[in-house]
Amino acid sequence: MYEVHGQPYVDEKGSMTAEKQDSGGSRDVFAEDDVHQIQYKTLSWQAVSLLMIAEIVSNGILSLPSALAVVGIVPAVILIVFLGIFGLYTAKLLIDFKLSHPNVHTMGDAGYIMFGPVGREVLAFGTVAFAVFGSGSELLSSQQALSTLSNQGMCSMYLVIITGAVAFLISLPRTLDRLAWMGLVSAAVITLAGFVAMIGAGANPVPGRSLTVTASSNFFDAFLAVTNPVFAYAGHFMFFILISEMRRPEDAMKAAWCLQGFATVFYAVFSIVMYVYIGNTVQSPALFSLPPAWAKATFGIALANFLFSSGLYTHTAAKLVFVRIFRHSEHVYSHTLLGWTVWTLLCFSGVAIAIILAIAVPIFSYLIGIAASLFAAWYTYGLAGFFWLHDVYHLKGGMDGIKRRPIGTTIAVLTIIAGAFICVAGTYVSIKLIVGAYANGQVGRPFVC
C-alpha cells in the first residue's frame, strides 16, 4: 500500500484483503480531498430523489394499469400502496446498513460483508446484469416511442441503435452530480407524460368499457399481474451507489421518503384514471391504449425520460465495475488516460450489450422478467431483512440482541421470505411465458425490423 494524492492506494492483487479490512465499515468508499480532480461526494438528497424518480417511474406508468384489469381495481390499488410502503421500509433498512458500513458501494460489497466472496460475486453480477437489462428495456421503450411518432416509418432495429448512441453519451459523465440536472428534466417529463396520458384517456373514454372491482384468477395470471407493481419499485439496487456520492449520506432517508411517496401516489392515481376510462382492454404499455394523437403526444414527452433512464442504468453498471477495478486508486480521482479509457469502454460495452439483447434476442422482454425476478426481488425486498439481521447480530448484541427485538426480527424474516417467494414465483411465471410464446409461435426472429 502506498499514497496517491494523499489517499492510500491498494494494488488490485491485494484488493480482496483490502476489502476484507474495509468490511468493518470504517472507511468511506470515496475519500474527500480538495486535491482530487474528480469529486464524488456532491449529491444533495433532492438530487438523489429526482434521479430515482426519473429511473423507476416510467416502468410503473407503462405497466401498472394492465394489472387492474387482471385482479380488479381494489386488490391492485391495495397492492400498489402496500408495496410502496413496504419499499419505504426496506429502503430504510438498506440506508441504515449503508450508514453503518460507509465502505459499501454496491450490493456486491454488501454481499461480501454478509456472505463472503461468493455473495459479493453473485450480487455484483446481478446488479450489472439487471442494470444492463434495464438499459435495454428503456431502449425498447425509446424505440416504441419513436416508432409511434414516425408511424412505423423506420426500421425498429435502427431506432434501437440510434437511441443506444444517445444513452451512451448520457452515461459518460464520471460523477452522478453531472447527471442531476438531467434527472430533474427527466422526472419532470415523465410526470408530465403521465398527466397528458390521463387527460387523453379522460377525453376519449372507451365506449362500453367494462370495469372489474375484484376478480378471481388462476395463480399464473394473478402473479403475472402482481409482478408489474412489484417491479415498478425496483430501484433499490442503485441506492448504495447513489448514497456513496451524497454530501450528507445521513439525509438519504429524505430521498427515500420523496421517492416512495411520489411513486406510490402517482402510480395509484395514474393506474386508477387510466383503467376507469379505458377499462379491461387497457394494454401494456398503457400508452398504446390511447388514441393515436394522444399516444404520440405522450410518447414524445416521455422519450427524454426513456433515454435518460437507459443512460443512468448504463452508468450504474459501469460505475460498479470501474470502482471494483480501481477502488481507492488515482484513476478514480484523477483524469488519467487509463481511467477515462476504461470508463468509456465500460459505458460503451454496457450500451452495446443492451442493444444486442434488444435487437438480437426475440425473447428479451421475457428475459427482463426473469432478471427482475432473480435479482430485483432480492434487491428491493428480500435482502433488506438480511441487512437488519446482520447488523443487529454484529453491532447490537448477537443473538441476545435479536431476541430482544422480536417484532423487528419477525418483520425481517418475513421480508426475506417475501423476497424469496417473489423470486421463485416470478421466475416460474416468466419461464412459463417463454414456453407459451414459443408454443404459440409468438417469438419473432432476431435482427429484423
Please indicate the percent range of residues in DSSP E strands (runs of 2 or more). under 5%
Structural class: mainly alpha
Number of strands: 2
Helix content: over 70%
Round the mean pLDDT to the nearest integer and report it.
89
Biggest sheet character: 2 strands, antiparallel
Could you characterize what this model shows?
With 449 residues, the protein is mainly α. It has 16 helices and two strands. The protein has helices at 15-22, 45-71, 73-100, 107-115, 117-149, 156-171, 180-203, 219-232, 239-244, 252-278, 292-326, 330-333, 337-360, 364-395, 398-403, 406-439; strands at 2-4, 7-9. β1 (2-4) and β2 (7-9) form a beta hairpin. The longest helix is centred in the last third of the chain and has 35 residues, at 292-326. The protein starts with a strand and ends in a 10-residue tail after the last helix.
Please describe the structure with a list of short key phrases separated by commas or semicolons.
449 residues, mainly alpha, two-stranded antiparallel ribbon, 16 helices
What would you say about this model in short?
The protein is mainly alpha-helical.
Present the secondary structure layout.
Blueprint: E1 2-4, E2 7-9, H1 15-22, H2 45-71, H3 73-100, H4 107-115, H5 117-149, H6 156-171, H7 180-203, H8 219-232, H9 239-244, H10 252-278, H11 292-326, H12 330-333, H13 337-360, H14 364-395, H15 398-403, H16 406-439
Antiparallel strand pairs: 1-2
